[in-house]
Give the backbone structure.
Amino acid sequence: MRFAAFAALGVLAACQTIPAFAEPPADREAQVLATARALADAGKTDEVGLQFVEDLTTEIGPRLAGSPDEQRARDWAVARLKAMGFANVHVEDFTVPYWKRTHETARVVGASAQPLIITALGGSAPTPEGGLEAGIVRFDVMADLIAADDADVAGKIVFIDEMMTRTQTGDGYGLAVAKRAACPKIAAAKGAVACLIRSVGTDHFRRPHTGGIDRRGPDGIAKPIGPIPAAALSAPDADQLTRLLARGPVSVNLDIGVETADAAPSGNVIAEVEGGARKDEIVLIGCHLDSWDLGTGAIDDGAGCGIIVGAAKLIDELPGKPERTIRVVLYGSEEIGLFGGDAYARQHSEDLGSHVLAAESDHGASYVWQFQTKFGDGALDYAKKMQDVLARYGVAAGDNLSGGGPDVGVLARSGVPVVTPAQNGWDYFDYHHTPDDTFDKIVPDEFRQNVSVYAAFAYIAADSGWDFRKAADPAE
Ligand SMILES: [Zn+2]
């Protein structure tokens, strides 16, 4: 099927031996854009990317950073990417602080004794054996905890009830997630014994959302655990606790067990569609291979990996290679603190100048609705040409303020041009970091539209010769 689809575009794509022009001639540019459209059309019937996510989430399952499961996922991905015919498939190793939950329970004690449904946050300290018991002090939002007197917090379990707003962009997350990262440090500094937060999520089911806390020590280096135990309540349990507090003081027993290691193996899995005349120039498309432990990491971020692998495979099947190399990076250990992105930037610090464009898919599997860029002021015309191609697939033009994705943000800050194919995030945070992050949440046709978008812009970047760093012409 795929080969039949490509017979028609072979003529368009065969033209790969043209020398590197700063500005390709108009007919060459028209060929590149036509091939990009043909690739995007082929993405509409993608099975390769979707199969990648299904197999990863079924055969490996959860892939906690630094765990033997993440190691199995790396081995699996290397074997799969080699079997798919990609070039230069390898792992770039690094180590991470390791944290794993062993048990987690919470219960209200006293006259209204009852269980509360919680999940420990990644990097939570353990409680003493049998749990710790303390009174609850509640705050509407994290800013109220920051403003609180130490005397009102010392010896207590802090409870931050801050909710998250549902938006298409996912912007509610940036606001709401601050309490998850920061509660343990701020509360511990005021003498609290533990942190409970309302789950960072938009659903109202009785299952909490995990996620990492800031576990950097005073030296700025991440440790396996933060200062005090920390857990998320499901939204209904946060409501229940608030109702109980309205009736009088509440004490809770919190019991969390963890396993840790100072340094565990992780790594970035890399595969390439090797370029032609400009093969040392890199178009990087990324995702993260690790996941939280509760679900099977389908929308976060198996889908992202399937999208970029599916798109790269479409380009790999063209009769001729694009001039530049397309590098697929499956980052390790994103969830616990962007370790994969940082390791990549460190290990490639000498050749970041040859990275012409980078993007990461890490916001689920729903359709791309907007295409943002961060290009030099002289390259905005290239953004427009990409956006014109993508408009055929329902993607609106975005601004030039992209920060890249989580793991490629570090590249953007080093001056590498980036794009953000912004996905619809309306229901992403209903499932994010919960046991319900599973393969069935992926809507195949929405997923495939992502494959179309990534194939189109990555191919244009790789075969157009365009310089996305280009500064504005001072004469203009
Ligand atoms: Zn993610």
